Amino acid sequence: MVELSIIMPCYKGEKFIENSIITVEKVVSEFCKSFEIILVVDGFVDKTYDIAKNLENEFDNLKVVGYEKNRGKGYAIKYGLKFVEGKYIALLDSDLDYHPKALKWFLEKIKNDNVDIVIGNRRDNNSVFKYPPLRKFLSYCFNLYVNLMFPELKLKDTQAGIKMFKHDVIKDLFNNIDNFKSFNGYSFDVGILVLARKRGYKITYAPCIYNQKFTGIGGGVKLIKTIYNMGKDVLLLKMKLKE
Description:
This protein is an alpha/beta fold. It has helices at 17-29, 48-54, 73-80, 103-112, 133-149, 167-175, 188-198, 220-242; strands spanning 2-10, 35-42, 62-67, 86-92, 117-121, 128-130, 162-166, 203-207, 209-211.
């Protein structure tokens, strides 16, 4: 059995995906000798799939899969789970705003601390969190909002794009995911953790290294719209769970 599977969902990644794959291959090989990368192309809207597919000839442990229509992060990860063989499953944003070398700390935690899930905590004293002050503040406010909506969570950071699960745990969570109708939106990370709490899984934190490379959310009107959509998705999730 492979020790570690890394699922990397990707949408419109033609500008960075080659570098991301090469970086993850190099970094993870330094601390894990048995791993695989599952790159899930979430919609054939640019050259991402073709660029990544060409790298399969270079890396035997790389699996590039995907589908024609964009379906969202939650769907992409669930699709990627069809191809994993690892004892532990990591989720990593493919733009590598979260540096893959933090996966070493995640792997040590999940192997040694008797936990089921390890999530990144950007506010850990050992984390590197390079983020504009406004974005840091908004991230902090969003986390307060999430914990207000779901007090059972009691988590310091739900949105970090780096997480790790035991194989059977993530399979169980995604096999029970269909009740979450808004699961492919901004509430994806919240939903998976709420479900994990409901099913009694042990969750802990690990430091992460965050350095935003691409504009992502952006500023001004676009930023306000994104914040609104994030809040709305979490509210919809809360309402669905009451049905």
